[in-house]
Design brief:
mainly alpha
């Protein structure tokens, strides 16, 4: 098994920090009325949001982190690395295509859907039949994919509900943490 370099560990650790730190700072800058349980992360980067550059930068940084992690996660199967990298690129595009002040953006919605699906499914593509890294086994990767995609389904079901912000944060947060867990697992193997 080829080793996972230190810079992949750094990028995978930076991903959840950028995501959670970005949404926490951007939420703090919003006027009263923004509700993180109800309102989405995308609303923090939408046209008309207060200091929208904070969340836009955090999303772009998150996407770049996923691409860098994919490049360095050498013990994973190539297909999984490609899907993780594609999810990262789609996340960068989510930042590049913000929601309008009112209504919806087709480009934002499509890139967000691609990002969520890719970042939820990459573990299944990365798994090996036998891997010394416990989180790259088929069982662990299959379970991770099941949980990550179930969170995406919850978000999709809540898209017009009162808990869409919570559902989105749960899905995005888990998707930002799983690459870090896998990288740590590969470095310890």
């Amino acid at each position: 098994m080829r080793p996972t370099p230190w810079w992949a560990l750094a990028s995978s650790a930076a991903a959840p920090v950028l995501l959670v730190g970005g949404w926490a700072l951007a939420e703090a800058l919003q006027p009263p009325g923004y509700d993180p349980i109800r309102d989405t992360i995308s609303a923090l980067a939408a046209h008309g949001a207060t200091d929208r550059g904070v969340m836009t930068g955090a999303l772009a940084g998150l996407g770049v982190c996923h691409v860098v992690t994919a490049a360095g996660l050498r013990p994973a199967r190539r297909a999984g690395r490609v899907v993780l990298g594609a999810g990262g690129m789609a996340t960068v595009l989510v930042a590049a295509f913000p929601q309008p002040a009112r209504g919806n953006s087709v480009a934002h919605t499509v890139t967000a859907a691609v990002a969520f699906i890719a970042l939820g499914s990459w573990p299944a593509f990365a798994a090996h039949r036998r891997s010394p890294a416990p989180l790259l086994t088929r069982l662990a990767s299959g379970a991770a994919t099941g949980v990550l995609l179930a969170l995406v389904v919850w978000f999709a079901a809540e898209i017009h509900g009162d808990a869409r912000g919570l559902a989105e944060r749960s899905a995005a947060g888990a998707q930002a943490l799983w690459p870090l867990a896998v990288v740590v697992s590969t470095r310890r193997s």
